[in-house]
Write a structure and sequence with these properties.
α7 packs across α9 and α15 crosses α18. β16 and β17 form a beta hairpin. The chain is built from 18 helices and 28 strands. The protein has 688 residues and is an alpha/beta fold. The strands form six sheets. It has a nine-stranded parallel β-sheet, sandwiched between helices. The chain has three domains: 350 residues, TIM Barrel, CATH 3.20.20; 198 residues, Rossmann fold (3-Layer(aba) Sandwich), CATH 3.40.50; 54 residues, Golgi alpha-mannosidase II (Immunoglobulin-like, Sandwich), CATH 2.60.40. The structure holds alpha-D-galactopyranose. Alpha-D-galactopyranose binds next to loops.
Length: 688
């Protein structure tokens, strides 16, 4: 095939309402999965044929059912422009089909080949300071490059045409971790795409001037052509420009995905598609709630921070967020690690049993696939010290034995597939609010968007209470407790949605620096927190952010950090107040009747014990109970089928045996559940 047959993909987006996710394709994918899918990234191009043969034997032994193939194989599939070598991939696909293993086939576009970089250097990413990032690595392209889109859609079409009827093909794996390494692009073509996006968003330049507040500092624009991305500048940039650039940057990546998806839909309308997200506390540049509307099934990658002793709590947050992105439906854990990674400063291996616990934690929280980066540990290249399912030591290793045990465990959990996670608590989460809350020139650099969210999530986690992490506009009608943390920017619709939850009868808690601005980052006037002031029955005149590391005392004996403010009651009562100068006697925690529910306001970041007491109080008021009674250190989550069959996951992160009050069949070990879970062990109870 010659290069001329490549389809040109327009950089102009599809209209936002034409989003592509197809629930029927998702249903077909899960119906064919036959239980909890198990596998990982498979990179056979790094190995000779004999190793491929051994791979098949070991995959069978481990019980592998699904592999992501070809993610970084473009330079081998098309070694020179228009010259293709698919022989090796044909053989791999046929062998996997023969072994009954399904493939999430990649578009191979996550690392452009050297010939393409040489011919079109303008595809390379440019950073805010004008640095052009080079090739020889991966992800060295900007998603708005018209040349890159032409070539990427071209290779995608060639792959789709070749494998469209292949029996192994179960899912398209579009590109890989879009936005990984670089998520904002500042080159000339990006600048033009940004301008086009702004023109579509704002309609007229005057509307943009209003939205950005350009009367300030002589920032007025007479035409869209004058606008640049927020490149490095002498002082702080216009917040509207920064916020819109963040929105645009998220859009540019998913729009690139849509360009590849359009080709896949044309050639294989029957095959579902996804791309692997990186939803966690570490990824903030992409609005995955927006992206979800184009992914048939949601796939997520998650890596533990080895040095964090509570990394299993962060894992739970990531999984709860991923489930929120998936609209509560099952999702794929596309990557995690069997043991150490290679990209943290010090990469410790996972301890015996840790990988099983991590895997089952994802399953407990809605994952119906457990996959790893990668099947076989590379012997060369920059990821050679990253663990894999088959380590350097081969099959006679702890890691491979644990991989086989995991495969067996997942087979025993087949009946869990398709059940939904039970939760009556919603934690509101919004990428746009995250971006806006952490813009520069704010009252305190110590206000980090995730801090209160993670504090509440962690406290609930330790109490065995599962929370759904949801977009502010999500349906909140099924929740008895709703937590709104640092929702600095909120539009009127979302504010009304949150207020309606309280008025309907839920207990609502709003924490400081919420409801301050609208979607343009314009302050809501008349007293903070403008969007929630009436609902909460308070009004705030001035913020008193605390010194670095400083605390403030409260009259209930607790302390607060990071934040305090001049709260005035306007209908609410004050269960706790500040005691120290200059805010002595000023409310720190308030409670207000709101229709059939209540609306609490928290004006500081409480110490851990005070936060736990507050959570206990909110749970009691909202009538939300833990998934079961258990000893401390046990992670508890329940999944339930619509017909009522329920499964209690009890994962013991502690170092001693723990009791769990549940009865039923224990699926992992077989037999009746004994009521205890071994130190570091797991139980999945099909409840009576
Ligand atoms: C990401 C990538 C993989 C691999 C892993 C290593 O998740 O998608 O290709 O690099 O990181 O942890």
């Amino acid at each position: 095939m010659s290069a001329d047959t490549r389809t040109a993909a327009p950089v102009t987006p599809a209209a936002p309402e034409t989003r592509a996710a197809d629930p029927a394709l998702a249903a077909r994918f899960w119906a064919n999965a036959g239980g909890i899918a198990f596998g990982g990234d498979y990179n056979p191009e790094q190995w000779p044929r004999e190793v491929h043969a051994e791979d098949l034997v070991l995959m069978k032994e481990a019980g592998v059912t699904l592999l992501s193939v070809g993610i970084f194989s473009w330079a081998l599939l098309e070694p020179r422009e228009g010259e293709y070598d698919f022989g090796w991939l044909d053989e791999v696909m046929d062998n996997l089909a023969g072994a009954g293993i399904k493939v999430a086939l990649a578009t191979a576009t996550a690392a452009p080949p050297a010939w393409l970089v040489r011919k079109h250097p303008e595809i390379l990413p440019v950073t805010a300071d004008g640095t052009v990032l080079g090739g020889g690595s991966r992800r060295h392209y900007t998603p708005s490059s018209s040349a890159y889109r032409r070539y990427a859609t071209g290779i995608t079409r060639v792959i789709a045409e070749r494998y469209k009827d292949h029996p192994a093909l179960a899912l398209w794996h579009v590109d890989n971790e879009l936005g990984c390494h670089v998520s904002e692009f500042y080159g000339d073509e990006d600048a033009q795409a940004f301008r086009d996006w702004l023109a579509r968003r704002h309609g007229t330049i005057e509307a943009l001037n209003d939205a950005w507040g350009t009367a300030f500092w002589s920032q007025h624009y007479a035409s869209f052509d004058e606008i640049q991305p927020p490149r490095v500048a002498p002082s702080t940039l216009n917040p509207g420009q920064q916020l819109d650039f963040q929105r645009y940057s998220s859009w540019a990546l998913i729009d690139y995905y849509r360009a590849l998806l359009a080709v896949l839909r044309e050639v294989t309308p029957h095959v579902p598609a996804t791309t692997n997200l990186m939803a966690s506390s570490a990824t903030r540049s992409m609005d995955y709630f927006d992206w979800a509307r184009d992914l048939d099934v949601i796939a997520n990658d998650h890596y533990l921070v080895a040095a964090d002793p509570d990394n299993h709590v962060e894992l739970a947050f990531s999984a709860d967020l991923t489930r929120g992105i998936a609209g509560g439906r099952p999702w794929l854990l596309m990557e995690h690690s069997t043991s150490a990674v290679n990209w943290q400063p010090r990469n410790r291996p996972k301890l015996p049993g840790e990988m099983l616990r991590n895997s089952l934690a994802h399953v407990a929280r809605g994952a119906d696939a457990v996959m790893f980066f990668q099947w076989r540990q590379s012997f060369a290249g920059s990821e050679k010290f990253h663990s894999a399912m088959v380590p350097h030591g081969g099959k006679d290793t702890r890691v491979f034995r644990e991989v086989c045990e995991l495969g067996a465990a997942l087979r025993r959990l087949a009946e869990v597939q398709g059940s939904l996670v039970e939760s009556r608590v919603a934690i509101v989460f919004d990428y746009e609010a995250w971006w806006a809350a952490e813009l520069d020139s704010h009252p305190s650099a110590d206000v980090r968007y995730l801090d209160m969210l993670r504090d509440f999530h962690g406290s609930l986690f330790r109490r065995g209470v599962t929370a759904d992490v949801l977009h502010p506009a999500a349906d909140l009608s099924g929740y008895d407790l709703v937590l709104v943390c640092t929702l600095y920017a909120v539009d009127d619709g979302a504010a009304a949605n949150i207020a309606a939850a309280a008025r309907r009868g839920a207990t609502l808690l709003v924490s400081y620096f919420s409801g301050i601005v609208d979607k343009h980052d314009h302050v809501r006037l008349g007293g903070y927190p403008g969007a929630f002031r009436d609902l909460l029955g308070v009004s705030v005149e001035e913020f008193h952010p605390l010194p670095a590391g400083g605390t403030v005392a409260l009259d209930d004996g607790s302390t607060g950090s990071v934040w305090s403010e001049q709260v005035r009651l306007a209908g609410a009562e004050a269960p706790a107040s500040f005691t120290s100068y200059p805010l002595a006697g000023v409310p720190a925690l308030t409670r207000h009747a709101a229709g059939a529910g209540t609306a609490w306001y928290l004006a500081t970041r409480p110490d851990a014990a005070a936060l736990d007491r507050l959570v206990d109080r909110l749970l009691a008021e909202s009538g939300v109970a833990p998934a079961a009674a258990a000893a401390p250190g046990v992670e508890l989550v329940r999944r339930r089928h619509p017909d009522g069959r329920s499964y209690l996951f009890a994962l013991n992160h502690g170092r001693s045996e723990a009791t769990v009050d549940a009865s039923g069949r224990e699926l992992l070990g077989g037999g009746r559940f004994t009521g205890t879970v071994a130190a570091g062990g797991c139980a999945v109870v099909a409840e009576d």
